[in-house]
Amino acid sequence: MLWTWTGIRHTIAVLGLLVLPPTAGYAADPATAPDIARILARGTLVVAAYKSDMPPFFYVDAAGKPGGIDVELATDIAQRLGVKLNYARMADNFDDLPHLVASRKADVAISYLSRTLRRAALVRFTQPYARLRQTLMVNRTKTAPLFRGGERVEMLNDASVQVGVEDGSSYVDFATERLPRAQVKPFPSNEDAIAALLAGQLHAVMVDEGFSYSLTRVQAGVPRYRVRDDWALYVKIVPLTGARDPIAMAVHRDDPNWLAWLDTYIADRQEDGSLDRLLDRHLGGPRK
């Protein structure tokens, strides 16, 4: 199997991977649904992804090899279809991903993509393959006066409070819904938001547990986020009770059979336990 890992400006790597044989009858059966037959006829599955590394979901390791939860899922899906994989790192932000799928630039987005109502107006979402807890990374000193008497997140729902989020991400919506009175400030990346948090410019940054967990878990060869090594001295991670971030795949609104195929794939991997094993390997800490 030939893997072509592309970005907006350049190709990162071309790797040879083990090929599973095409599923019997897929390409030859005239009854194959047209939205799936289109992928089979092309011989390549085009998967839209965000341009920057986002471990543990997708990244290029120190040896130049793509890895992560979404990379492994996309690889397995392409192998089961018996086609090549083009994991296209072409999105400037996460909100671009549904637009790329809606404009037929990709067959599916598998890229740490949160399912939201706003995005569901553009594409169809599969059932979630991961459910992450939403968390706040709070500046210990700046929030201490607000948290007197207990760490109640509701105390941050105030017009004087500034909360950072990654621009173009679902956390713009999540923060506005959870803390409607606070000032929600978008930043180019979570790393930029945390730099502002450490500088005392923000009370908190809202992220998912996958991101916050990656800051505490160093893996050999896996790229690290650009956050100061001493961040934990000044920042505390506070999980948001009852707040989940459903991570799902997105397909074109006119591809119901392709959606059903992917839903079946996710259900089968949940049933046989392989999805849990994949998530535990990359996200074992925060999911327990």
What is the CA-based Rg, rounded?
20 Å
Query: Helix content range of the residues, please?
Result: 25-40%
Low-confidence blocks of residues = 1-25
Number of strands: 14
Q: Mind summarizing the main beta sheet? A: 5 strands, mixed
H/E element string?
EEHEEEHEHEHEEHEHEHEHEEHH
Distance between the termini: 35 Å
Which short descriptors sum up this protein?
5-stranded mixed beta sheet; 288 residues; disordered N terminus; alpha/beta
Question: Overview of this structure, please?
Answer:
It is a single chain. The chain is of the alpha/beta class and 288 residues long. It contains 10 helices and 14 strands. The chain has helices spanning 34-42, 69-81, 96-102, 117-120, 140-143, 171-178, 190-198, 209-216, 256-271, 274-287; strands at 2-7, 11-16, 44-50, 59-60, 66-67, 84-91, 108-109, 124-125, 130-139, 162-166, 183-187, 204-208, 235-247, 250-251. Strands 2-1-6-3-7 form a 5-stranded mixed β-sheet, with helices on both faces. A 5-stranded mixed β-sheet has the order 11-10-12-9-13, with helices on both faces. The longest helix has 16 residues, at 256-271.
